Amino acid sequence: MKTECVGDYVKLKGKTYPCTVSLTMDLIGGKWKAVMLYHLKNGPKRYNELRKEVPSITEMTLSLQLKQLEKDGLIHRKVYGKKPPIKVVYSLTDFGNSLLPVLDAITNWGNHVVGEYGEFVKA
What we know:
Blueprint: E1 10-12, E2 15-17, H1 20-28, H2 33-40, E3 45-46, H3 47-53, H4 59-71, E4 75-80, E5 87-92, H5 94-97, H6 100-117
């Protein structure tokens, strides 16, 4: 039996995974989800703030990924106002905050790789 599982499969919100790594990658995997969570770790942000902090992401991708993160319970979307222009703020949920040690480890590893094999470049 796999050491990360006490059963043959794991299940979360009706979805079955072969292991906990698969579950984790479904929640935060891909090119942008972890990046967006990283930018929300220091506090709530509006859509346009996230867009400015991740300029290479398309608006459609940002919107879709935010919806997926919200659906998965990692972020909270709060809407202020009833008619346009409305204010929408995104923040980490308690479930999302539980990922902070993982995000910190990814950040530290990335910093190490750049320090050893690459370089930090100013725009």
